[in-house]
Write a structure and sequence with these properties.
Distance between the termini: 66 Å
Number of domains: 3
Shape: globular
Number of strands: 15
Largest sheet: 7 strands, mixed
Number of helices: 16
């Protein structure tokens, strides 16, 4: 099947897994925050650079796509690992051998330990005792570790630093990530039930898990154990509406280089406004395909900087990158020259985000005098750059004046 036919699939803008296939044979399985955007990225001109020649060859070999939607990126991560284990797709296993993958180990003991283990350690020098459950392979260790942080907040478990029955709370018990096996608050039977719940989650049986928790919640309420019922209710709510922001950000990273690459025609422009350092604010505006997307404009009240435009810009960009649900732009525009460009570059590099930058340098009348930065973008998109910068300046000034009026009142 031609590449154009593969790209014609109408994939949803939701989390899930996708499979590139040749006939009935699955060549590759991947997970996605947005199935539509992730699959589209396989048909970009820089696929070889972004991923690998092998993956580019796989796309050419494939003749069909299948996919499954999930309620969250966490569930997509789990489903991806289960599919790789079951199907052994050649372009997953050829990219990495078993020693390069990551696994979740649950030990076989009275109070099992949960630990993320590199395949290299697991298959060559494992000294962690008997293994009760093994989940994986997970292609990206960073994503699995972020997933375990999320799971542990919902379903606290024991790690190797916690000694059961010690009497003294371990550090993770003090911050709510250990259920209290160290202090004796949770019995062996109760902890076995907790481990069972985690096993259900990583086996892809979230609905079964939710039903068990709901039954336990009803039983606790009937027995007037209202504190237990309340804790179970919170677990049900957290699992029903999983907030996996860290995983969404991680999913945007390509496995080959760990850096986010933007797609589409979205441009974001930023500007800072203040009066002698007072009521400092910043804004983000969006231009896409030559048109201002006003519903996607965002305002930021700057908290950490006064009379320091590069510092304020850094804070705004950092806060913007905490919103991975906003699509990344193809180009970022800043109002200013070297100082602002360097500030933005540092933030993007630290976050592993590879997006070209353009600075709009103003004259004494605050009119654009020249553009600096990515020359290709300047040549191709000068009109959109100036539109985005103009919109950012207008929006920032209006927001700043509104805050000034409120402060006076």
């Amino acid at each position: 099947m031609e590449r154009e036919t593969l790209t014609s699939y109408d994939l949803p803008d939701s989390p899930g897994i996708y499979r590139f296939q040749k006939g009935k044979r699955v060549l590759y399985v991947g997970k996605a925050t947005s199935l539509r955007d992730r699959v589209r990225s396989y048909f970009s001109k820089d696929l070889v650079e972004a991923r690998s020649p092998a993956i580019a060859g796989m796309v050419l070999e494939a003749d069909s796509l299948t996919w499954e939607e999930t309620d969250s990126v966490l569930e997509a991560l789990i489903l991806e690992a289960n599919e790789i284990k079951k199907l052994e797709p050649p372009f997953n296993t050829d990219e990495k051998d078993n020693k390069s993958f990551n696994y979740l180990v649950i030990t076989d003991e009275a109070f099992p330990v949960l630990i993320v283990v590199r395949g290299r350690e697991l298959f060559t020098k494992w000294e962690g005792g008997k293994i009760k459950h093994l989940f994986g392979p997970f292609p990206q260790g960073g994503a699995l570790r972020e997933a375990m942080k999320l799971v542990r907040k919902i379903l606290p478990y024991r790690d190797s630093k916690c000694t059961p029955g010690k009497g003294k709370p371990c550090f993770n018990r003090q911050i709510g990530l250990c259920p209290g096996v160290c202090t004796g608050e949770m019995s062996e039977k109760e902890y076995a039930e907790r481990v069972k719940h985690i096993v259900l989650l990583f086996s892809g049986k979230k609905q079964t898990l939710l039903k068990e928790l709901e039954r336990a919640m009803a039983k606790a309420a009937k027995g007037e154990r209202f504190e237990d019922a309340s804790a179970l209710r919170r677990q049900v709510a957290a699992l029903t509406h999983i907030r996996d922001v860290a995983l969404i950000k991680d999913d945007a990273r390509f496995a080959s280089g760990g850096s986010v690459r933007a797609s589409g025609n979205r441009i974001e422009a930023y500007d800072v406004a203040h009066t002698a350092g007072t009521e400092t604010v910043g804004v983000m505006v969006v231009v896409e395909d030559g048109e201002a997307q006003k519903s996607e404009y965002r305002k930021f009240k700057v908290k950490g900087f006064t009379n320091n435009d590069p510092g304020a810009l850094s804070e705004i960009l950092q806060r913007r990158l905490m919103h991975p649900e906003w699509h990344l732009p193809r180009l970022i525009i800043v109002d200013g020259s070297t100082a602002q460009m360097n500030a933005a570059k540092r933030v993007l590099e630290k976050a592993g985000v590879l997006i070209p930058l353009v600075g709009v340098v103003k004259d004494e009348f605050h009119r654009p005098s020249r553009l600096v930065g990515d020359q290709k973008a300047i040549l191709e998109r000068e009109k959109e750059i100036l539109l985005a910068n103009s919109e950012a300046h207008r929006f920032a000034i209006n927001y700043h004046r509104k805050r000034q009026r409120r402060a006076m009142v």
